[in-house]
Each structure stands twice: as C-alpha cells, then as structure tokens.
Amino acid sequence: MYGLQQHELPSLDPQKCTIQLGLPGPYGYSRAIVQAVDKIGFKMTTGGAKVEAIEDGYSHTVQDNNDGTYTFEYMSYGSLHVKLNGVEIRLK
Questions:
Q1: Residue partners of 6: CB distance under 8 A and separation at least 6
Q2: Can you give the CATH number for the domain in which 67 is found?
Q3: Is the pLDDT reported for residue 6 higher than 70?
C-alpha cells in the first residue's frame, strides 16, 4: 500500500484535514468533527492521532472515534484553535 511496508502508515497532513463546525450539540454547545487526512490526500480510517481543541485558553475534550474522525463540543463564541499531532489545522 502506497509503496510502504505493511506496518507503516502514511503521515497525517494537518493542512489537508477537514473540520465540520456548527453541528448542534448538547446544552447550547456546538459540535465539531475533525477528519484526519494523510499526505497523499486519503481520509484516515483508524484513530490514534493526538487532536487538541482549545477555545480562549480552555482545552475541550476530544473523542477519538477510531475511524479517522475526532469529535468535540465547543461554545462557538471564542477563538477556536484545533491541532493535530501538535500542528494547527486551518479553520476554513
């Protein structure tokens, strides 16, 4: 697969990852879904990446869905920053 040995996976590319914002969440929060994408441009289908969501200095809990997506709730009134393996994902 991709010319890599069987135990190797393509590197994740935070610049190719997508974030779906503004989904209805509980208690007035909004829900976001991060889709991890590799450097080749394929959506990841396994979990394990470190995803951080920080809004105005507050770290939100991020759920690894073990399918290449990560979910978190946020208040949607502050400055939101999302990082994948320590590299910020650009919010579009």
A1: none
A2: 2.60.40.10
A3: no
